[in-house]
Amino acid sequence: MKSWVRKLGKKGMKLCLVLPLIFSMNWMGYAMPHTEPGPISMPELERYYSDSELQTLIREIAEAAHQAIEVAAGEAARVATLAGLEREATAQVKAKESLLRMIELEGTLVEERAAFRRKTIKVSLLTFLGGFAVGLVGMAMTTGGR
Q1: How distant is the alpha carbon of residue 110 from its chain centre?
Q2: Distance between CA 107 and CA 43 in Å, rounded?
Q3: How far apart are CA 69 and CA 77, in angstroms?
Q4: What average pLDDT does range 94-104 have in this prediction?
Q5: Mind giving me the DSSP string for 13-38?
Q6: Cα–Cα distance between 145 and 127 in angstroms, integer?
Q7: Residue 7 in 3-state DSSP?
Q8: Is residue 142 predicted with pLDDT exceeding 90?
Q9: 49 neighbors 57 (Cβ within 8 angstroms)
Q10: What is the reported pTM?
Q11: What is the pLDDT of residue 24?
């Protein structure tokens, strides 16, 4: 018997314990008495409507349904309009931010161009004066050496 238990292992032993419980649970379900369903409708509460009453009732229900549909359509249109306005407002805010950023960058660019021009003029003037000085010194050396 020990070899049989070893072959089953822990999972097999659990299975041997659980299977009989499962089968006993199913048998208990069959032993329960059947219950009868209650009556679907009670004759004393039933009322018979004439054709004109039914048509009036159907008309009233249809009118109420049409009104509910109109209200729902109005609400849906209002929500869609508000969502569109919100998207448009967000787009306008982003456009204004982009425009302000572009104006700021344009101002920075104008300032940098002016600074570049000033530096270019200074370098050109220094180069000219330096060349003029070198030319004067060179002339003085050539004429002074005679």
Answers
A1: 41
A2: 90
A3: 12
A4: 95
A5: HHHHHHHHHHHHHHHHHHTSPP-PPP
A6: 27
A7: helix
A8: no
A9: yes
A10: 0.40
A11: 66
Integer Cα distance of 80 and 72 in angstroms: 12
Mean residue pLDDT of the chain comes to 83
How far apart CA 139 and CA 54 sit, in angstroms, is 125
| pLDDT tens track for 27-74 | 555 555 566 666 666 666 667 778 888 899 899 999 999 999 999 999
Kind plus residue range of the DSSP H or E element containing 108? helix 51-144
Cα dist. 101→97, 107, 142 in Å? 6, 10, 60
- Nearby residues of 57 by Cβ (< 8 Å), 6 or more positions away: 49
Q: Residue with structure tokens 């109005």?
A: 74
Contact 16, 8 (CB under 8 A): yes
Residue 74: burial class (beta carbons within 10 Å; 0-12, 13-18, 19+): exposed
Task: Give Cα separations from 83 to 40, 76, 92, 96 (angstroms).
Answer: 48, 10, 14, 20
- Spatial distance between the Cα atoms of 143 and 146, rounded to a whole number of angstroms: 6
Average pLDDT over residues 92-107: 95
